[in-house]
Amino acid sequence: MEREPLQIKNIKKVQEIPEIVPLALERKLISQPALATIDSLISESKFKRSTTESPNCQLEINGQIYTIETIEYGEHLDIGKIQKLMIDTFGREEIDSEKVLRAAIDGKTAWGGKDVAKYRVYVLKNKKGEVQSIITGGLLDLKKDGKSTDKTVFMICYVVTSKEARQEGLAKEIYISSIIGAVQEAQKQGKKLSFAAGECVFTSERFLNKIGWKRVYGQQGNNLDTKQELQYIQPALDFDEKTGKIAEDASETSKHLMIGSFESAEPIKEQVAQIVEAFYRWCNKWPREAFKSEEAYQTHLKYIDEIEKKFKKQLEFLGELTFLSLEEREISRKAGMVIHEYKDAEHDNAKKPKI
Questions:
Q1: How many other C-beta atoms are found inside a 10 Å radius of the C-beta of residue 185?
Q2: Left if phi > 0, otherwise alpha if psi is -120 to 50, otherwise beta: which for 173?
Q3: Distance from the first to the final alpha carbon of the chain
Q4: Measuring CA to CA, which residue among 102, 198, 197 is closest to residue 151?
Q5: In the predicted structure, residue 242 carries a pLDDT above the cut 80
Q6: Is 3 a member of any domain?
Q7: Of 133, 145, 217, 146, nearest to 175 (Cα)?
Q8: Is residue 6 included in any domain, yes or no?
């Protein structure tokens, strides 16, 4: 059954974006491992960035000017442009409605309650004000035994660039801004931004490798030279509010799990499990008010929990984890390593991020 979106009143005037604390000041508060990655990506960039202390900035290259802005409020006037780019890229049936998007940016669920995280949207525009690229995502707590730790992960949901602006390096620039913003948000919470991650399809891997993300593999059996990719399932995204079961037009999907680590080491098994739990908690578990009865709600939770348990069982079964980019896999295969890919995620009808 289709969700009832939160009703948003039309706002004619955009509220001012609150002042963002510069990273230079933030560095004095908590040691943020992501700062080294930010510095590295900026040093490699061909763009001149007006500031490295805020996600909101101006970019210049060969006389061309772009701006990056954080969309902080659901009534922002650019949301219509953002929605249009999403529809043009994925089709109207593949994305949430504009009302749901506006609610999510305000940190609200489709049913009006407070969401697990605020939906962050970063938009890059050319000098004409045309939206060229966007990144969306949210900062999520990593929990242990149900309690928050001092670490967070920035989950990226979409990376989209308009057709006329692809292959120009804009997606990488807006990614840098999104991580600067995530660091600042983590600072305000008194936590560290330790990882960035997402549910990905194969067409986006080359871009994600460029920003430091890799697929996750575990040792298979006693053979050190045999690796199995972790099999990640994105649970269904729509449910029957009366029964709690998957809606008729919805289904679960196989995806590649890709993670970028800002720490000095890659995540251990426990942290990978925490990252996946955070994804399911934010994206897939509906609140109690979404269902007509407690029984329907519990049916829904059981479905998500069973998928999570299967993922954790797989983690326990496999040996030591290895994180590999596409290039690293090719080199490893030439050296004699056997690598089993998660082929169910290599399907042509998957949603394909346009970067």
A1: 20
A2: alpha
A3: 32
A4: 197
A5: yes
A6: no
A7: 133
A8: no
CB-CB contact of 300 with 244 (8 Å): yes
* Tokens (6 digits) for 232: 């990640």
Residue with tokens 């430091």: 212
In a domain, 289, yes or no: yes
If one counts the domains in the chain, the total is 1
- How many angstroms separate the CA atoms of 227 and 58, rounded? 43
- What are the backbone angles phi and psi of residue 209, rounded to the nearest 5°? -60, -35
In a domain, 354, yes or no: no
The count of residues in the chain is 355
- What is the span of the domain harbouring residue 318? 23-345
Q: What is the tens place of the pLDDT at every residue in 171-218?
A: 999 999 999 999 999 999 999 999 999 998 888 899 999 999 999 999
Q: Is the pTM of this model over 0.70?
A: yes
| pLDDT tens digits, one per residue of 276-312 | 999 999 999 999 999 999 999 999 999 999 999 999 9
Helix residue spans in 240-325 (DSSP H):
269-279, 294-317
CA distance 231 to 199: 11
Mean pLDDT of the chain: 89
Query: Alpha carbon of 300 to those of 15, 194, 257, 308: distances in Å?
Result: 38, 30, 23, 13
Euclidean distance between CA atoms 131 and 51, whole angstroms:
20
- In angstroms, what CA-CA distances link 29 with 26, 56, 84, 149, 186? 5, 21, 40, 18, 11
Count CB neighbours of 126 within 10 A.
Answer: 18
Six-digit token string for 226: 């045999």
CATH value at residue 145: 3.40.630.30
